[in-house]
UniProtKB/TrEMBL annotation:
NCBIfam families: adh_fam_1. Keywords: Cytoplasm, Metal-binding, NADP, Oxidoreductase, Plasmid, RNA-binding, Zinc. The keyword NADP applies. It comes from the Bacteria. It is found in: Cytoplasm. InterPro entries: ADH-like_N, ADH_Zn_typ-1, ER, GroES-like_sf, NAD(P)-bd_dom_sf, Quin_OxRdtase/zeta-crystal_CS, Zinc-ADH_QOR/CCCR. This is Zinc-type alcohol dehydrogenase-like protein. It holds the Pfam family ADH_zinc_N_2. It comes from Ensifer adhaerens (Sinorhizobium morelense).
């Protein structure tokens, strides 16, 4: 089968940072399904995993943690899917990725593809959707179905992949959304997704948020990096919560959190599959819930651009764009040539 892989960790400008290779077609066992991959999305985690370092892989390594496709075959213990089902999923960081024609993935972290979306539109969603959903509803404890209607949330990094679906999920839950964006095109993007207010993450956040009439906000989601930590501590309401997805070495003074009895949560959407947690099927359930919401017209894809076909050259280009830090929404690569 065709695949895009690496053996060395090189700058994306190097033509050998990704290679077009042929690999054996895997066979599913246990809870695994074998998916014929139709489209993949590129995320910052892909860029981090490919980042230059002194390591050489003995066999080609396939990255990629966002995909949609069709179930080709199933393992003996599979009960949720059957061959022919259209699916979407983010996969498991510890396993071979989605940048290949056929991929093995545990059925418990796979959702039914939204019927109203193309494969490219669906591939844009899984990783960021799981991240935002878990951040809001599992970590911060926001009620998914509106019991916290009227509460406020500040989403730092509103135009990125996680922020783009996060704005929609927060609005569906009835929250007032303040999103950060800094360029005309990203400001327009977050407004289109439903943000009630937009502030710039290139300027101090406290003064901007308070100028909107919010002395404090009920919830804060940091979906880019932790350089806004001090502002977040100042803005969070007493007994409120902050969630972050950033792997940071930035100093994080906690005195303000303590005196407010505020909580800090970390979100890492690969935790459930990596550690085989007893509740890993919750990712199947949440992806299927979001598929229903999309088909009902209450949520929409965050796809911004499609490249084709899935090959080394287009993976390099997608990684290059992600590395600029200026991308909005999601970049998807669709279809294997031939």
């Amino acid at each position: 089968m065709k695949a895009v892989a690496l053996t060395r960790y090189l700058p994306v400008s190097d033509p050998e940072s990704f290679l077009d290779v042929e690999l054996p077609k895997p066979e599913p066992k246990g809870h695994d399904i074998l998916v014929a991959v139709r489209a993949v999305a590129v995320n910052p985690v892909d860029v981090k995993m490919r980042a230059p370092k002194d390591k050489v892989e003995e066999t080609p390594r396939v990255l990629g943690w966002d995909a949609s496709g069709v179930v080709e075959a199933v393992g003996a213990d599979v009960t949720l899917f059957q061959p022919g089902d259209a699916v979407y999923y983010a996969g498991d960081l510890t396993r071979s990725g989605s940048n290949q024609q056929y991929q093995l993935v545990d059925e418990r972290i796979v959702g039914r593809k939204p019927k109203s979306l193309s494969f490219a539109e669906a591939a844009a969603l899984p990783l960021t959707t799981i991240t935002a959903y878990e951040a809001f509803f599992d970590r911060l404890g926001i009620d998914r179905d509106g019991a916290d209607h009227g509460q406020s949330i500040l989403i730092v990094g509103g135009a990125g992949g996680v922020g783009s679906i996060g704005i929609q999920l927060a609005k569906r839950a009835g929250l007032t959304v303040i999103a950060t964006a800094s360029r005309p095109e990203t400001i327009a993007w977050v407004k289109e997704l439903g943000a009630d207010h937009v502030v710039s993450h290139r300027e101090p956040l406290v003064a901007q948020v308070r100028a909107l009439g919010f002395p404090h906000v009920d919830h804060i989601a940091i979906f880019n990096d932790m350089r806004h930590w001090d502002d977040a501590v100042e803005l969070i309401r007493p007994q409120g919560g902050i969630v972050s997805i950033d792997n940071t070495n930035v100093p994080m003074p906690m005195a303000g959190m303590k005196t407010k009895a505020a909580s800090l949560h970390w979100e890492f959407m690969f935790a459930r599959p990596m550690h085989q947690t007893p509740d890993m099927i919750e990712q199947h359930r949440l992806l299927s819930f979001v598929a229903d919401e999309i088909d009902a017209g209450r949520l929409k894809t965050t796809l911004a651009e499609v490249l084709s076909p899935i090959n080394a050259a287009n993976l390099r280009e997608a990684h290059r764009r992600i590395e600029t830090g200026a991308a909005k929404g999601k970049i998807v690569i669709e279809g294997f040539a031939g």
